[in-house]
Fold this protein.
Amino acid sequence: MNIKTILYLVTVPLIIWAVESINVQNLFKKNRKYQATLLYLIISISLSYLAVNFFYDFFLNSKFV
């Protein structure tokens, strides 16, 4: 199994758990639950991608020092 896959399996649930603590319901109009959920999903995927790439690059660069 690739190290990036393991990092994704660890960070995605943590990021989703952290993003759920943000209350963005006040930013949306009434009855826009699906759009708010989609925003949560996009933010979670984006932050997970950034976190995994950061940790992966950090691991590669510290490995050769």
